[in-house]
């Protein structure tokens, strides 16, 4: 049994000095006496959107290839890089990424996984080989995983066939459902298997409905949507409605749904998502890197919408940076300060933390994001001895954590009660990093 080593625990209502927990043998929290320690503990952060293999190409798409460079030209670079990935390299890259996530304070990751087959589009001998590489990386590092195999069937809203570079992503409906069924049999307290639709442009309506009819009632459902203006325009032209508008009108969108990006919304769509109970996964650093646009956060908060953050392409692996730039983008857009606040708190940092933690359970299928009896024993301990926290009262600690620079202020990380990060370092960081370096040299060799 592991006791949370903290005098102060952060809850949605603020810091508490009168609560303590232990992790039982099943990795769940049980109430106990508060600790005599002086440290500050916060629930582990759920990462709602990840493409693990893209961590290895961070920084490799920052040279201009076209005066009109955009998401669509970046995508060609990504396709070329993806064509080199194998199950072994996916394992090496994902393990490096997941160790970095844990060191930064992410304790659960939703892996939006579409890199299924060999480069020529033929399945591996084990059709789930790439999925198993990700599961192995999660087990090696100790991160909690929600695996989201992706259905990817067409190259556009017009139903065109997948391009040569997209062929390894593709499934027909029956093969996709077989993949899900096989992976679901491997579920554990550390692994949940949901479902992802790549996007409306990549999944015909009839296929989406067939998969939805076959899913378990509690499976999380993730989808990229309304990330790019071009996507919105094509959807209007070929489906007669904007992407979010179409989805809300043609599917029973509810709290199981996670809408990734949802950047370009009308006021009616903002209200529609909020009313449905769905969660928006905002990926600020990737959206900024790709030039996607800014999510209408203030309007969405006013509508009562649920949201969380993801590191997506992993141009950054830091929940602090996702949250900080979510707020900063709003400040740049409105030319005002302290945008993300709610009536219950004037603290931007606490509002941001509260929002992203609250989305954890619906988005991941795990009982994460809160320190309460029976929840997953996943927590992070902040480095209260860091200079940034000198003289700070707990009322300001979350704002200091998020808005005081780029030094990592996470001291320890526990997942399922097991310590996986101590003194800011993952417990097998060196071995993972050595394998990652060797893999990257191979991937980047011409």
Q: Can you give a write-up of this model?
A:
The structure is a single chain. The chain has 446 residues and is an alpha/beta fold. It folds into 2 domains: 2-43 and 375-429, Urease, subunit C, domain 1 (Roll), CATH 2.30.40.10; 46-364, Metal-dependent hydrolases (TIM Barrel). The protein has helices at 71-82, 87-104, 129-141, 173-184, 205-214, 229-239, 243-250, 267-276, 284-290, 297-302, 319-334, 348-358, 360-364, 397-403, 429-444; strands at 2-3, 8-11, 14-16, 20-23, 29-32, 40-43, 45-50, 106-113, 144-151, 191-193, 195-197, 221-225, 257-261, 279-282, 306-309, 379-382, 410-415, 418-422, 425-426. Strands 7, 8, 9, 10, 11, 12, 13, 14 and 15 form a 9-stranded parallel sheet that branches. A hairpin with a 2-residue loop joins β17 and β18. The radius of gyration is 21 Å and the shape is globular.
């Amino acid at each position: 049994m592991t006791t949370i080593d903290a005098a102060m625990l952060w809850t949605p209502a603020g810091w508490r000095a009168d609560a303590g927990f232990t992790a039982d043998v099943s990795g769940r929290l049980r109430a106990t006496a508060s600790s005599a320690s002086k440290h500050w503990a916060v629930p582990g952060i759920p990462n709602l959107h990840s493409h693990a293999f893209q961590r290895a190409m961070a920084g490799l798409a920052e040279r201009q290839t076209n005066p009109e460079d955009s998401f669509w030209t970046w995508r060609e670079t990504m396709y070329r890089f993806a064509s080199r990935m194998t199950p072994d390299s996916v394992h090496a890259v994902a393990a490096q990424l997941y160790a970095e996530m844990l060191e930064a304070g992410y304790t659960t990751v939703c892996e939006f996984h579409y890199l299924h087959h060999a480069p020529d589009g033929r399945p591996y001998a084990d059709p789930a080989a790439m999925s198993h590489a990700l599961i192995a990386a999660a087990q090696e590092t100790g991160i909690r995983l929600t695996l989201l195999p992706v259905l990817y069937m067409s190259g556009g809203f017009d139903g065109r066939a997948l391009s040569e570079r997209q062929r390894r992503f593709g499934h027909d409906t029956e093969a996709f459902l077989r993949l899900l069924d096989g992976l679901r049999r491997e579920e554990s307290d550390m692994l949940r298997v949901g479902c992802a639709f790549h996007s409306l442009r990549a999944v015909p309506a009839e296929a989406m409905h067939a998969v939805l009819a076959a899913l378990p009632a509690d499976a999380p459902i993730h989808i990229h949507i309304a990330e790019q203006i071009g996507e919105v325009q094509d959807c209007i032209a070929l489906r007669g409605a904007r992407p979010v508008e179409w989805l809300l009108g043609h599917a029973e969108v509810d709290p199981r749904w996670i809408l990734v990006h949802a950047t370009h919304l009308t006021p009616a769509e903002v209200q529609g998502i909020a009313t449905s109970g769905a969660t928006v996964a905002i990926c600020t650093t990737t959206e900024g890197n790709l030039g996607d646009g800014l999510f209408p956060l203030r309007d969405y908060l006013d509508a009562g919408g649920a949201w969380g953050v993801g590191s997506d392409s992993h141009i950054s692996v830091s929940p602090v940076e996702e949250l900080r730039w979510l707020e900063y983008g709003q400040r740049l857009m409105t030319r005002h300060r302290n945008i993300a606040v709610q009536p219950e708190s004037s603290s931007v940092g606490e509002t941001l933390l509260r929002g992203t933690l609250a989305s954890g359970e619906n988005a991941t299928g795990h009982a994460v994001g809160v320190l309460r009896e029976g929840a997953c024993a996943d927590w992070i301990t902040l480095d209260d001895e860091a200079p940034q926290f000198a003289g700070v009262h707990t009322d300001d600690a979350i704002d200091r954590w998020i808005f005081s620079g780029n030094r990592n202020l996470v001291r320890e990380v526990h997942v399922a009660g097991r310590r996986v990060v101590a003194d800011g370092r993952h417990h097998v960081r060196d071995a993972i990093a050595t394998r990652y370096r060797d893999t990257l040299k191979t991937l980047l060799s011409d």
